[in-house]
Design goal:
The chain has twelve helices and no strands. By secondary structure, the chain is mainly α. It is elongated. The termini are far apart.
């Protein structure tokens, strides 16, 4: 079956489901879009510790997919994959938040690291290098890298919604919200340009090209652990830049 025939079959399946709303038709749609759940889970892997149960994550994403199928309105002309992707990811993040999988000690390290990055780069007026950041934290370079590996588990959730380029899932975002998001994206674009080259590339490949951790590691010829560290550093720099911009407007 070629791509056009497959698309026609899926469109026909959608029309049948929207007309009859049977469990059997909904399950057929869910089976067709199941790879989307695995894709979203793969992208979230850049920020998850090993002890998070992947099967539970996939299950929560599956329920997000079913919710998307139930709520999807073909009349809005939104691409289902885009709409469902947001719903699936949201369901997975809700699952992670409910598990509260970050230990208190890691939360404390995150706060200290973030505050140090903010204060140091505010003082320098530019991104700090590893040596400067390690010295400020009183760590060796190796200890700094170990710390960044530990805290990388918490860095995808705060920025992902802002850096994604797809349209609102519901289509209900108002003019004010769209303007605020556009302004934020412009500010982030400026901040991204200030990042060191490798961190900038990780951000571009992860948030804009929507590649997985493994795919990025192959492109950049670096280990997945190193990509995760670069992602961590980039996100904290961006968050610090946003905080400084916000403070300057007060």
């Amino acid at each position: 079956m070629n791509q056009d025939e497959n698309l026609a079959d899926v469109t026909s399946l959608w029309h049948s489901y929207l007309e009859h709303k049977t469990v059997e038709l909904r399950n057929q749609l869910a089976e067709h879009y199941l790879p989307l759940v695995k894709l979203v889970a793969g992208r979230l892997a850049i920020s998850l510790p090993a002890h998070v149960d992947r099967d539970d994550l996939l299950s929560s994403g599956f329920f997000g997919l079913m919710d998307a199928i139930d709520r999807y309105d073909m009349e809005r002309k939104n691409k289902f994959e885009t709409y469902a992707g947001v719903r699936i990811r949201g369901a997975m993040l809700d699952y992670l938040r409910s598990k509260d999988w970050l230990p208190v000690a890691i939360r404390q390290k995150i706060r200290r690291y973030e505050q140090t990055v903010y204060e140091l780069e505010n003082r320098l007026g530019r991104p700090a290098n590893d040596g400067e950041l390690a010295a400020e934290l009183g760590l060796t370079d190796k200890e700094l890298h170990n710390l960044e590996s530990q805290i990388s588990v918490a860095t995808v959730i705060p920025l992902d919604d802002y850096l994604r380029t797809d349209s609102p899932a519901s289509g209900e975002e108002g003019p004010t919200e769209r303007l605020e998001k556009a302004e934020l994206r412009n500010t982030l674009a400026t901040a991204i340009e200030r990042l060191p080259e490798k961190e900038k590339k990780v951000v571009a490949l992860y948030y804009y090209e929507e590649l997985t951790l493994k795919e990025i590691s192959l492109i950049m010829n670096l280990s997945e652990a190193r990509i995760s560290q670069l992602h961590t550093k980039a996100v904290f720099r961006l968050r610090g830049y946003l905080a400084r911009m916000k403070a300057s407007l007060v």
